[in-house]
Structure formats: C-alpha cells, structure tokens
Amino acid sequence: MPVITLQLVIFITVAALAIASALGMLFSRNTVYSALLLVFNFTTVAFLYFMMGAPFIGLAQITVYAGAIMVLFLFVIMLLGTGQIARIEQLSVQSVTAVLLGLVIITEAVVVFLLRNPTSLVVTSGGDVVSVNEIGSLLYSQYLLPFEITSFILLVAVVGAIILTKQEKPTGNAGKGEGKK
Amino acid sequence: MNTIPMSYYLVLSAVMFTLGAIGVIIRRNPLVMFMSLELMFNAANLTFVAFSNAFGNANGQIFVFFVMVVAAAEVAVGLALIVAIFRTRHSIDIDLMNTLKN
C-alpha cells in the first residue's frame, strides 16, 4: 500500500464525488437533475485530468462535455417537457439482474486491479508529463488526416441533425410529399 | 512522492463504466440512457489519459480528443432522432419503440 499523501487524499475525494454523482444520475427520478449531476461528474473527471497534467483534455472536457453537450441535453429535456417521468419505472427482473451483474463486474475489477495483480505503473500528478505543444504538433503532423476527418464528421452530424428535426410544412391541397421549393 | 498507483485509476474507470452500462439497461428514458452512454465514454477517456500520463506518451490524449468529437456528433444526431420520434409518437418511452418488431 502506498503512503497516504495529499495527492492520494485529493484523488480519493474526487473519485468518491464522481461515483456518487454518477449514482445520483442513474437513480434520479427527474431528468433535469440527472443532467446536472452528470455535469458535476464531468467536472470532477476534468479535475482528475488537470491533476494528471493534461490541461488540454481537461479544458476540452469542460467546454465540450460539461458545456456544449449537456446544454444540448438540457435543451431537448426542456423542449420535450419530460422533466418528470409520468410512468413509474417498475423494477423488473431485467433491472435486478443488471444491477447484480454490475456489482459482480465492479468486485472483479477491484479484485483484479487492486488485490490480485496490481500494476507497477504510477500516474504522476502535477507537472507537465505531456505538454500541450506536443499534442498540437502531433495533431497537425502524424494525425493530420484523422483531424481533417473529424471536421467532416461534425459537418455530417450538423446536417443530419438539421434534416432529422426539420418540420415538414403542409403543402396545401396538392397532397403530401411535394418537392421542396 | 506525488504519484498515485495506476490501479486506482483503473478501478475508478471500471466502476464508472459499469454504472453507465447499468444505466443503459435499467432506465427506460432514452435521454438518461444517452447520459449513461456519455458516462461510459468518460470512463474510457479517463483510462486513456491515465495511461498517456504513465507512459509519457501524447497519443492517448489525442485519442481522447477524437473520442470527444465522435461523442459530440453522436449526441447531436441521437437527440435529433429522439426529437423526431417524439414528434410522431408523442412519447419517448423506449418500450413503445417497437414498430420494427415482428
């Protein structure tokens, strides 16, 4: 067992917060609370990224996940008006089995990773292990083609989302399915 | 010594991933199912960054960047699908989406 250091205490606190907010997200009855708890979870994970000396990923986590994606979720929740779930989700055999199997996997992970066969690798906290400069130059040299493809993926996603949610205007007396103007 | 054993990060990531998988299975609200998917992406990203740190290699962080891009695209299209389904069925209960069954 490693000695108890300040870094370890901070890590365990943040990890406990992350797991607690994930649990709250799972079992919250209100979808808005779920979304806000997930924002909190993303923020704790971003904190872990900063601790690991990955400021680029941490900032991207906060802006892209906690900012953009969750705002999109909240927009859709408000748009659909499903803040409260009307129907009570009853506990089925499927749910009980899922929770039990999940507990088995978690126990197995703890046994395998922590007790039986702990790896000798360590994660250094604080300091720049990988600098942002290095990520930038890799992104624009070795990973240039995938980087360009991401722009295409985002374009396709934007166009697809617009087409999927486009309201079809009633075209009057000539029946449905008339060509667009 | 400001180091934390890799095992702790792996266990945290495994717990978060399992919670996400449980959420996808037990919740019947597609919005919460999507959020659980994001939780699973996040758990995988955490492992990527932890290994990137342990090996001092930037490739892991670049993969996290790509995962984030794909997750953003997936959420945009998925939420658009949910809105489109809500418009036609006036409900987003996942159990009622069985038109393709049989």
Describe the structure.
The complex is a heterodimer of chains A (181) and B (102). Chain A is mainly α and 181 residues long. Chain A folds into two domains: 1-85 and 98-130, Up-down Bundle (Four Helix Bundle (Hemerythrin (Met), subunit A)), CATH 1.20.120; 132-166. Chain A is built from six helices and one strand, in the order ααααβαα. Chain A has helices at residues 6-27, 31-51, 55-80, 93-116, 132-139, 144-164, and one strand at 122-124. The model of chain A is unreliable at 174-181 (pLDDT under 50). Chain B has 102 residues and is mainly alpha-helical. Chain B has one domain (6-91): Helix Hairpins, CATH 1.10.287.3510. In chain B, 76% of the residues lie in helices and 3% in strands. Chain B has three helices and one strand. In chain B, helix 2 (30-55) runs antiparallel to helix 3. Chain B starts with a strand and ends in a 13-residue tail after the last helix. The model of chain B has no long low-confidence stretch (mean pLDDT 88). The chains are: A mainly alpha (181), B mainly alpha (102). Chains A and B meet through helix 1, helix 2, helix 3, helix 4 and strand 1 of A and strand 1, helix 1, helix 2 and helix 3 of B.
Main pleated sheet of chain B:
none
Shape of chain A: extended
Distance between the termini of chain A: 70 Å
CATH class of chain B: Mainly Alpha
For the sheet with most strands of chain A, the description reads: none
CATH architecture of the largest domain in chain A: Up-down Bundle
Tell me the layout of helices and strands.
The complex is a heterodimer of chains A (181) and B (102).
Chain A: H1 6-27, H2 31-51, H3 55-80, H4 93-116, E1 122-124, H5 132-139, H6 144-164
Helix pairs in contact in A: 1-2, 2-3
Chain B: E1 3-5, H1 6-26, H2 30-55, H3 59-89
Helix pairs in contact in B: 1-2, 2-3
